Amino acid sequence: MRIRNGPAQFEVGNRSFTHMFDGFGKLYSWRFQGNGSVYFSTKFIKSEFYKKSISLSDISPYVMFGSTQPRFNPVQTLLALWRNMDNMNVNIYRFPSEKSHRGDFVSLTDVWDNYEIDPSSLGTIGYQHPTVPSTGGINSFIFRNIMSTPHPLPEYGTSNHFTFLLSLAVVPGFNHRISLIRIKSMMDREVVTQWTVNQHEAPYMHSFSVTPNYVILFSAPLFFNFHAFLVSGSVLKGLQWHGSEENMTIHVIDIKSGIIRTFTAPPVFYMHHINAFETWTNEIIIDLPTYRDASVILNLKTETLLNRRKRNKLNPHSVLTRYGINLNKTQVSVKPFPESVKYPCVTKFDMPIINENYRSRNYCYVYGFVPKWDDKQYSQFALVKKDLCGNGKDRMWFYPNHYPAEMWFIPFPAVNSTNLDEDAGYLLVPVLDGQKNVSYLAIIDAVSMKTSFTAYLPTRVPETFHGRFFPGIE
């Protein structure tokens, strides 16, 4: 089963969201029957935010990334701050479960809390606030467990996962705190290690990397100003870019000992790590799409995206960059990948996905999404395959007036213990056909980047954020 998550409704009554990240979360699933049939279903996540808003015929006061139009009044802003963020519209993940062999499914965003989801019906089971040691008791009065990641990663060789937690200090005199958390199940979590950051330097981090022995977090100089956030009630207003005066900080955490080593690199912004692996020379390699600053997300306002002239002025392109952290010499090398002659946009992607069998291992292929691939029109969407190993397999998928989203790689099953090539598999991606005004699921050959099959839907699927493929779900 393929399940995706993303923002789908941007107005209720006479009030609307003003940023792309704030639409009410909606789930979409494609279930493969094994006989050539595909069943499609979709359902809104029934968060408290969503239910209150629908019942009021107005957007209810909760914390959101941007703001609303009309704006909340001061009393509504205070109520939003009290309620915190409740719209889990970014990703969906499965964690091990003691009560179900299929695991527990949760919808996620960049906050600590989540909603449990029934993967078969897409129904919302309930709100979850996982607790961890050292964040309760007296600490619950000093810190608020707020920011986290919608991209947890598996701990190599186990059924556990890692995530991180930013706890904001709400009592003067205390510094903010970051914790590396081991997820054993949806509610069972433990602290691997913790460290503090200055009051004015609570970093915004969206993703991270894991190798067999290390967790690597990049802290770009995009900081969360708690005072500005309290005044506005908007995450966007609280984010401040300090790239002109501060470098990027890299934390490398030894999983077994919890020891943290800190490195620095030139200031860049990023959203998504691609992958990381260790070399025999005691070096950690990390790949990610990087940006000159944070404008790539700060400018994604609905007013801009709905205006052709304004959106075509946006520069959404990343620079595919490889970081090498030499643990012997405490050095960091930074090497952008050169552009492809045949496909210049192949190093300008984001929303990266890989063959998950190569997670935390040396790998060769990454797939991504490129808006404005022609450097002219933001609506020119392309999918790309980047060959990191120089095998000559750079590829591009593009059809005029077709609008794809993030892909997901499904490897072919091995037969008779035969090792398959890393890129042997299919890519699943929802696409909006702008000519027919309906969406379809494209099944793309990951080697050639050519469409192998399509399954048209009776409706449109908005531009979603993230999702995964879950085999064996009935």
UniProtKB/TrEMBL annotation:
Keyword set, alphabetical order: Hydrolase, Iron, Metal-binding, Oxidoreductase
Classification via InterPro entries: Carotenoid_Oase
Any one Gene Ontology molecular-function term assigned to this protein's record: carotenoid dioxygenase activity
Pfam families per the UniProt record, alphabetical: RPE65
Cofactor(s) annotated in UniProt: Fe(2+)
Co-factor: note: Binds 1 Fe(2+) ion per subunit.
Single GO BP term: retinal metabolic process
Binding-site positions, Fe cation: H151, H206, H272, H466
Keyword field contains Iron: yes
Keyword Oxidoreductase set for record: yes
Family the entry assigns: Belongs to the carotenoid oxygenase family.
Annotated protein name in UniProt: Retinoid isomerohydrolase
Upper lineage: Eukaryota, Metazoa, Spiralia, Lophotrochozoa, Mollusca
